[in-house]
Design goal:
about 25% strand; about 25% helix; 8-stranded mixed sheet; binds zinc ion; alpha/beta
């Protein structure tokens, strides 16, 4: 579905903060996938990979979250939901947090509750389902979070996965997934494109069945979609940073950033 990005609105600060950006696992450069978007006066967490709860706590953001959007049920995007649930329930119980995700991720919440629930503490009996209010999103469908429209796109990834567009902030996140014409259309006109760049190049990679793009493809996506700026994330290795940046720059002449924890960029408002 095509959509146009909305025109400027009230002057609330809108921005993207990188909490974690690694593919796979936390490492010397911080947590796995986790991004905070402030839009329409709301604070949304997109993905909650391992290490993200610490990053949120260090920035005083756990108490400010209004909702979580989880793109898919791979561990590097959701494993810290356990820690987030515990943090919001112990020692004091915070209000339930809506979580929007494809159906398999919500089944993971039940599995985690079965594994990590603490029957002797009422708030932690089923920590995930007590801390979060689950909402199933069918990738490709749009939904609203308290009046803010969120659009999604099915990505080419081995499990149900959704790219995210927040028109009110001019923001698109590819999530994980191989290149497709639909992804170019989905990203068209974004002011800020946060794109996975799992590999610096395609040499020896099965990008389609594994469902990822290279840094060069991320640059081509930014160029073909006519976006304002590009942020590369989800790199497999810090050793790839320079090569990845060069590969993206060879395709896209606009602003390019490498994601790193603490990077904060303004979004359209
Ligand atoms: Zn991933
Ligand atoms: Zn994945």
């Amino acid at each position: 579905m095509n959509s146009t990005f909305e025109s400027p609105r009230a002057a609330l600060a809108q921005d993207l903060t990188i909490i974690g950006c690694r593919a796979g696992s936390p490492g010397t450069n911080g947590a796995a996938s986790g991004y905070v978007v402030r839009v329409d006066g709301k604070t949304l967490l997109i993905d909650c990979g391992p290490g993200v709860v610490l990053g949120l706590a260090q920035r005083g953001l756990i108490e400010r979250l209004d909702a979580v959007i989880n793109t898919h049920a791979h561990a590097d995007h959701c494993a810290d939901l356990v820690g987030l649930a515990y943090h919001r329930l112990f020692p004091n119980r915070m209000p339930q947090l809506p979580i929007y995700a494809p159906e398999p991720l919500l089944r993971v919440l039940d599995l985690l509750d079965a594994a990590f629930g603490i029957p002797s503490l009422p708030n932690l009996r089923k920590p995930l389902n007590i801390a979060f209010a689950p909402h199933v999103v069918k990738p490709g469908d749009a939904f609203e979070i308290a009046g803010t429209r969120i659009e999604t796109l099915v990505t080419r990834h081995p499990i149900p996965t959704m790219a995210i567009k927040i028109p009110a902030a001019g923001f698109v996140f590819t999530a994980d997934g191989a290149m497709s014409p639909q992804l170019v259309e989905f990203a068209r006109g974004a002011r800020c494109l946060l794109a996975e760049a799992t590999y610096p190049d395609a040499v020896g990679r099965d990008l389609v069945s594994h469902g990822h793009i290279t840094a060069g493809q991320a640059g081509a996506l930014a160029r073909d979609a006519g976006v304002g700026s590009l942020i590369l994330t989800h790199l497999s290795s810090v050793d790839d940073e320079d090569a990845s940046l060069r590969a993206a720059q060879s395709e896209f002449a606009g602003d390019i950033h490498l994601a790193r924890p603490g990077l904060c960029v303004p979004l359209a408002s």
